UniProtKB/TrEMBL annotation:
It is an enzyme of class 3 (hydrolase). GO terms for biological process: CAAX-box protein processing. It comes from Laccaria amethystina LaAM-08-1. It is found in: Endoplasmic reticulum membrane. This is CAAX prenyl protease. One of its GO terms (cellular component) is endoplasmic reticulum membrane. The lineage of its organism: Eukaryota, Fungi, Dikarya, Basidiomycota, Agaricomycotina.
Amino acid sequence: MDILHNQLTNIQRHLAFVATAPINWICYVQVFSWTVALFESYLLLRQYPLYSKKEPPAALASHFGPGVFEKSQNYGKDKAKFALFSGLFKQVLDSSMLQFGFYSWSWGASGALIGKFGFGSEYQIIQSIVFVFTLFFLSSIPTLPLSVYATFVLEEKHGFNKTTPTLFVTDLLKGWALAFGLGAPFIAAFLYIFQWAGDRFVPWLMAFMISFQLVMVVLYPTVIQPLFNKLSPLADGNLRTRVEYLASKLKFPLKHLYEIDGSKRSSHSNAYFFGLPWAKHIVIFDTLIQQSKPEEVEAVLAHELGHWYHMHPTKMMAISQLHIFTILALFPAFLHAPPLLRSFGYPKAVAANPPTIVAFLLFQMILTPLEAFVSIGMNAVSRHYEYEADRFAVELQDQLREPSMRDMGERLGRALVALHVKNLSTVWVDWLYSAYHHSHPTLTERLKGLEAFQARREKKAM
């Protein structure tokens, strides 16, 4: 442990200038956040002309019925327009809040609010919780019209919305209640670790965050998910038999097999698994069951089990923990930096002894532009894992010695095409836009990959 702390101390020595140098941090954040926002707008403008194509890629032409490709293009065009407007609107909002001192005002307002209940500035954790939720609620109000438009205009126009106004409001209130119910204790524990461990908080905070994630794995299916959707045991039949047999052959620790009422809110479809290493749950959207044949759904789940087989969730979690560790290792230099808070308009009295939550918020703002580059790398890793899971499905017949699974790759290809067609997904995608935004390869890329995997498998069998 001492070796770790010594290395962390060395990092802080190299960042000592943060606490003394007169850096205009607010200007840095404004310039680079606008750079990211304008770059994302540029990517949308690169993608937008592709929505004017009149024909799908040749490999997909036979899968689109009359008028379906046109609907897909129109849906993509409307989403791009909305994304361009909403992205710039949110950037103007964030930039304005930053420039006009909204964050420093919120800290003062939270202190005044708890003061009315007899709590002074020494109750920093309580003030921090009030501060965070003041920011959360007040900053979310201006973006509510965007959510309303996306649900009741954009998705409604293209036939996907199933959410009623009552359900929308109910979901919103549940989300806020959940944010407070989980967020308040999380923030309290997060800040208590700083108070207890001092500058040696990094390993303890890492241990806490990993533990919190494991707790959420248990809480999500049992407490959180039922607040929004109904999970029912998948009915007996061909699909259940196929999935249970596949899971048993792979020794996948299947505990529950659910159907979820995704159609309650949208006609989009999906399937996923979650759980602890020894008890996994598979969830299939009712829309997927309605839109695809049992053998195609089985192929989609074969792909998902490929992620489990190759330990992709565990690997991604390890990468994310390394990322979080890097962030926390840099933070101490910003935690004790009065010039940082002064640059963002905080009073001298507050900046002299920076509140942990305020310093961490500003630190995150400084890192946000750099996170855009990190996301590209994470997408590249995720895409590699998607190809690996596709190859797993193709080669499943060899691994399990099951002739009935010899066409799993073809079934997966048909399922992917059907999902894209039913969901009106974009099939013409700019490479740079995709690299920045997409964690999955495009449909044409995946179909070519499946063909290559199948050809390689057949070559080995000869």
